[in-house]
Specification:
Elements (H helix, E strand, L loop, with lengths): L8 H19 L16 E3 L5 E3 L3 E2 L8 H10 L4 E3 L7 H11 L12 E6 L6 H15 L6 E4 L4 E2 L16 E2 L3 H13 L6 E4 L3 H8 L8 E5 L7 H9 L3 E5 L21 H10 L3 H11 L3 E2 L6 H7 L9 H8 L11 E4 L2 E4 L14
Parallel strand pairs: 3-4, 4-5, 5-6, 6-9, 9-10, 10-11, 11-12
Antiparallel strand pairs: 1-2, 7-8, 13-14
Helix pairs in contact: 2-3, 3-4, 4-5, 8-9
């Protein structure tokens, strides 16, 4: 019988280490890739509940089914710990599949590691409709609770299962339910442990104060469109004074919108931003995202492209100078890219301008 010599200790140790690495690579959902971006304290906003909300998240509006699952997986592998969702986006079930694959004791991530937001749609503003709408979202996302639940818009539509109920002339069928009643129903969700925090989306400053006047649980977040052409300086100050964190959607101007006008300004081609991108060896998108996060604004760029998802989170390794921050803010022109429109008599018109709670008639 042939006797094989025992491997030397350092060789045996190396083999064990390789075996462990191989095991981890095959057991975890990209567990090694979760090390790409390590969160630091200044990567978070602190809510008025004391909970931390990652400053950079993945937006999922316009992320079509068939692509959004992989986008969420890529984002988690790249270090994202914040996913922004909404029932009206029509893709929460697929996002839920990605989350199911990501969470678990043997998969590298726990549920509590990731901050997940969703939103109550306009047809469910009546108090008795709020909890069922949330339960549907939780089922679709395969979750037991949300970290944050927002009222998507202050203006309500006619109740029912049709997300955009319309009259014969193409205009929307509205409901005049007071959003303060909706807010009271949102507060009950916190008490039941179904959501950790609640907030608002697309509300103006007056409407925020209106909610605060009756709130037993204060809103934690206001989510609005925000980018250098719509810097939201006054609204941001208003939120900070009242203890709300601002989240910016469409932070890069939503260049993939189907309703883009050929004459509208192109944010990513702005010369001042291009100059800064060259200085810091970053992309214009990264300069814009850094500007927002450096202001303390949570930012949720959407992408279903792996390279862009990875690129968008690489904004915590440099700091813009004060004058550079001011120069980007000075680009503001109060330009809204995201004004929902409908076609009436062959012409595009603002979808909700006739609603008494339409938010964009106020200065901010």
């Amino acid at each position: 019988m042939k006797i094989f010599p025992k491997p030397k200790p350092h060789i045996a140790g190396l083999r064990r280490a390789r075996a462990i690495i191989f095991f981890c690579q095959n057991l975890c959902l990209g567990c090694i890739y979760f090390q790409v971006h390590r969160a630091r304290m200044n990567d978070f906003a602190v809510l008025n509940t004391g909970r931390k909300m990652p400053l950079l998240g993945l937006g999922t509006w316009k992320s079509e089914p068939g692509k959004v699952k992989q986008a969420v997986i890529w984002s988690l592998q790249s270090g994202y710990r914040h996913i922004d969702c909404a029932a009206i986006y029509g893709n929460e079930s697929e996002i839920g599949q990605a989350l199911q694959e990501a969470f678990g004791p043997d998969k590298g991530l726990r549920r509590e590691d990731v901050f997940i937001t969703s939103k109550l749609w306009n047809t469910h503003h009546h108090p008795e409709d709020v909890e069922p709408a949330l339960l549907k979202t939780l089922k679709d996302l395969s979750l037991e609770y949300l970290d944050l639940y927002l009222i998507h818009w202050p203006n309500a539509f006619q109740r029912g299962d049709t997300p955009f109920p319309k009259k014969e002339d193409g205009t929307l069928l509205y409901d005049d339910i007071d959003y303060k009643l909706t807010w009271a129903a949102m507060e009950k969700l916190v008490g039941k442990g179904l959501v950790r925090a609640i907030g608002l989306s697309n509300f103006n400053s007056r409407q925020i104060d209106d909610v605060l006047s009756v709130a037993n649980i204060k809103p934690t977040v206001l989510q609005v469109e925000g980018h250098p052409y719509l810097a939201q300086v006054e609204l941001l100050a208003h939120c900070k004074e009242r203890g709300l964190v601002m989240t910016a959607y469409s932070p890069l101007g939503s260049p993939d919108r189907a309703w883009k006008h050929p004459d509208e300004p192109v944010l990513l081609e702005e010369a001042d931003i291009a100059t800064l991108a060259k200085k810091y060896n970053k992309t214009p998108a990264q300069i814009i995202l850094r500007w927002q996060t450096q202001r303390g604004i949570v930012t949720i760029p959407k992408s279903v492209t792996e390279s862009r998802i990875k690129e968008n989170i690489q904004v915590f390794d440099f700091t813009l100078e004060a004058e550079e921050m001011s120069s980007i803010t000075a680009l503001n022109r109060n330009w809204r890219y995201i004004v929902p429109t409908i076609t009436v008599d062959g012409k595009p018109v603002p979808r909700d301008a006739g609603h008494p709670h339409y938010p964009f008639n106020d200065p901010y």
